[in-house]
Prior knowledge:
alpha+beta
Amino acid sequence: MSADIHKGHRKRLKEKYLNDGIDNFAEHEILELLLYYALPQKDTNPLAHKLLDNFGSISAIFEAPTSHLLSLGITENTATLLKLIPDITRIYYDDRFNNKSKRIDTSNLCDYFRYKFLGRTVEHLHLLLMDGKYNEVYSGIISKGSLTAANVPIRKIIELSVFYNAQYAVLAHNHLSGIALPSKSDIYATKDVFEALKLIDIKLLDHIIIADEDATSLIDSIYAHSIFTTD
C-alpha cells in the first residue's frame, strides 16, 4: 500500500517544479527534490523530515558543519550537495551583480559586499583595492578567522596595495553573531590598517561589517568614524 502511495512521487514532484516553480513547495518537498540528485534510488522524504527536525530550517541545514550532517548518518555525497548550495548562491550573486566595468560606487559599498559572505561559516576578511579613478584592481579574501588587531595581515595588505598600484582600499568582514556592529577589535584593527596604508599614501576609505543581510559602514558609525578623519 505504501509503495503504491509513493509510486511516481519523484516524477510528480519534478513536474510540479518545472510547471509551477518552487514557491508553493513545502520545506520538506524542496529538500526531497534536492536530495534526489544525491540519492537517486532512495526515498528522500524521511531524510528531508529528519534534517528539518534536527536543524529547524532549510538555511540552518545548508549552513550546518559537515561533521554535524554526517553524524546523522547521511552520505558524504549528500553532505557535499547540501554544503554546495550556499557557496553556489554566493558565486551566483557575485556574478549576477558583478560590475563589469569595475568602476566602484564608493557611496554604496555595503551593497558591493553584501553577498560576498553568503554561506561563510567562519569570519573572512575581504580586501578591495582601487586605482585613482575608483576602478577595481583587486578584490579577494585575504584571511580567515576571528578579526583582531593581532591577526590582520597588514603586511599582505601593503604588498597587494603596492603590487596593484592602488590608491584606495576598503576592508570588509563578516560577523557570525548576526549583529553588524563593530567590536573593539574591529576598531583597533581598522585603525592599524588605516595608519599603515597612510604611510604609503593609500587611503582606507571604509571598513564594512556584514552580518546575514545587514551591513554597517565604519566610516558612518559613531564608534569608529574618527579613524577615517584622522589628520
